[in-house]
Amino acid sequence: MFLKDMVYRGIIRVARAVIAVQGLQMHVEGRDRIPRKGGAVLVMNHSGYMDFILGGYVPHLRGRLVRYMTKSTIFEKPGVGALMRIMEHIPVDRIDGAASFEEAVRKASAGQIVGIFPEATISRSFEIKNLRTGAVRIAQEAGVPVIPLVSFGSQRLWTKGGKRNLGRSRTPIYLSVLEPWEPEGSPEENTEVLRGQMQAGLENLWEQYQRDYGEFPANEFWVPARFGGGAPSPEVTQREDSAVEKERYRIRKLSEDLTGLSEKIREVSRNLVAGAYEAYDSAQEKLAQDSGGEDRTAMMVWLKNNMDELAAEVSQGAKEGRDRIATSMEQAKNSAAMLYSQLASSGWERYEGSRLDEALTRLAAQSKQIVSKLPHRVTSQFSGIPAAIVCNIEGSLLGTDGTIDERDAQALRRAAGEGASIVLTTEFGPDEWRRAAAALDLPTVGVCYDGAVVLDAEGEVLSQSFFDPEGTRAVENAVAEAGQGVSLEWRTGLNGEEYHNMVGVLKVAEADLKKTASHLRKELKEVAEIVPTLGRGLHLLPAGTNKGLGVFRALDSLHITPAQAVAFGASFSDIPVLEAVGKAVAMADAPSEVLKKAASATSISDEAGVAEVLHPLLDAVAQEAEPEA
Questions:
Q1: What's the pTM value of the predicted model, to 2 decimals?
Q2: How far apart are CA 424 and CA 390, in angstroms?
Q3: In degrees to the nearest 10, what's the CA dihedral of 18, 21, 26, 30?
Q4: Which residues 6+ apart lie within 8 Å of 138 measured at CB?
Q5: CA distance 248 to 157
Q6: Of 176, 208, 232, the domain-final residue
Q7: Which of 203, 158, 144, 216 is nearest to 176 (CA)?
Q8: H or E element in which residue 148 lies
Q9: What's 378-427 look like in SS3?
Q10: Tell me, what DSSP letter sits at residue 565?
Q11: Which residues make Cβ contacts (< 8 Å) with residue 171, sequence separation at least 6?
Q12: Whether 178 and 249 share a structural domain
């Protein structure tokens, strides 16, 4: 530590010599506010690349060294990185700063001064930007004061996008140490207090400069826009900074998603080796022996294709954090390669609905979902806001608590506000559609009973399908032949002045579901459509009726073609819809057959999967519509 500090002080002496050679006119006030001992968080505004030197100027006058928090990429540069480590500065990963936060708290608690630029990047407006809460949180965690230091003038030496002016320029540099304070309570509220204090301090420096050197010259790059200078306004730079922060968050979340996918793949591998799937699936009904190999191959190919697609596209458009993504993706690829090898050598034969089948489907869905969220996918798959948005109420919108997530509701309202029509489909009757429409507080067209009934926004019937008496008898006879464990209930509708059967609702034991469906398809192939439901039952619809046809009728009433619509699907009954629309999105918990019909996947309804797709799309459209600054 002692030897490192000697090197650090030597570097400072060199820096002070450079300042002298440049002839910089240093104006310093408040130096006594820097304590001669004890920890603190020194908070500085950031307007140029020389701020690291200038920020340490005043503490050095008090015999103190500053340990700066600075971006980790600087530590990777030959020579410079070694010096940064010798001076014990703190590397900050801008995507995930947890480790640097802990190190900063440790140093401040140990009595050192930690230097932070809470604006995170250089303020090109040369005003105080929005601050991150990290400085306040470090001070609170370490139990040390915040010491604000504001500067003006360093942007004239070397700033972002500007030329270097490191010769003998005699540039005036103003440094002011403001009143230290110890933050208590909300970090967010304290950060706003800090920003106000720093803005007031900076405005005071502007006044001092103009008293000493006259009015700011017009149109000069280093003069803030409010004084007629050439710097961009805070509003313009804030929009640009927000875009950068949004991208950093995306990269961090993407890295987490890839790590989560890799762990899920390893979990399936471990279970496969342990025989966990065999122990459960041996009781399940095996597919025909002659098709087992084909099904196994098809499942493996589908999973591998999804992983290959992810690997090919995951880094597209990424700049900062690209290495992090590549590392996470490589881990996922290695885990997947091991799983492929295990599947190929295990002699596994696929069981329909088995745990292994389900586990592999979820892996494919997870990789498909990650790809679907990539920004270039959002912009390439949509050409503007869709004319209609079709949502399966039970599978796409209702969470496990039986309610619609407010994020999904807001996204649909926002889309409707931009002109999109909303179509809601349901396994149940009109009452379920009305409840969902009321929760969304939107006019919607309803497709009920998996397409047997279509209603306009006013509740008027657009179309209905019924079983005739002969069809009703055929259904009841076929159900009776299916066995005692199968029960049938009819849903009826008014046709003229009489009620007729519209949908047969079958309750079947899960173990008998496939056998019962096969029996009914054979016996009723000219009479009824057999549709599995999300509730692990069966619906019997009049022949020729399906949800896809119901959605077509709904869209036709709105003068919208299926190609102009996007649909969110989660159940087998959604397959005709997904096949017909221009953009098909499967929920992450959908069966593999549904996922294969969709161009993309999104999160489950509990995680607001509809909003996950719509908000980025709406943001992209809004951004394209904004006039250039």
A1: 0.71
A2: 6
A3: 40
A4: 41, 101, 104, 105, 108, 114, 116
A5: 29
A6: 232
A7: 203
A8: strand 146-152
A9: HHHHCCCCCCEEEEEHHHHHECCCCCECHHHHHHHHHHHHCCCEEEEECC
A10: E
A11: 22, 23, 24, 25, 153, 156, 157, 165
A12: no
User: Kind of pairing, strands 40-44 and 146-152?
Assistant: parallel
- For residue 372, count other CB atoms closer than 10 A to its CB: 21
Tokens representing 212 are 């000493």
Q: Are residues 390 and 371 in the same domain?
A: no
Q: Are residues 349 and 402 both part of a single domain?
A: no
Residue with structure tokens 């009920």? Answer: 448
For residue 540, what is the enclosing H or E element? strand 538-542
Q: H-helix or E-strand containing 268?
A: helix 234-274
Other residues' Cβ atoms within 10 Å of the Cβ of residue 594: 24
CATH of the domain at 154: 3.40.1130.10
Domain-ending residue, one of 308, 342, 376: 376
SS3 state of residue 369: helix
* DSSP label at residue 181: B
**Token pair belonging to 418:** 């931009």
Judge if 368 and 407 occupy the same domain.
Answer: no
- Rounded Cα gap, residues 73 and 92, in angstroms: 8
- Assess whether 489 and 618 both reside in one domain: yes
CA distance 33 to 437: 61
| E strand residue ranges, 45-100 | 66-71, 90-92
Do 254 and 189 lie in one domain? The reply is no
Mean pLDDT by 10 residues, the chain (629 residues): 85 92 96 97 96 94 96 87 93 84 97 96 94 97 98 96 91 98 96 98 98 96 96 92 84 90 91 68 42 62 88 84 86 89 67 70 89 82 88 94 96 96 94 96 95 94 93 93 87 79 89 88 92 84 93 96 95 93 94 90 94 91 67
Helix or strand or coil: residue 367?
helix
How many separate domains does the chain show?
3
Q: What are phi and psi of 319, to 5 degrees?
A: -120, -80
State how far the alpha carbon of 448 is from the alpha carbons of 69, 179, 463, in Å: 59, 67, 10
Unique residue bearing structure tokens 């190919």: 301
Strand order in 487-495's β-sheet?
A: 487-495, 498-507, 538-542, 528-532
217 and 364 part of one domain: no
Residues 127 and 62 in one domain: yes
Q: Which domain holds residue 120?
A: 2-232
Structure tokens at 214: 């006259």
Bridge partner list, 421: 388
Distance from chain centroid for Cα 147:
35
Q: Tell me, what amino acid is at 135?
A: A
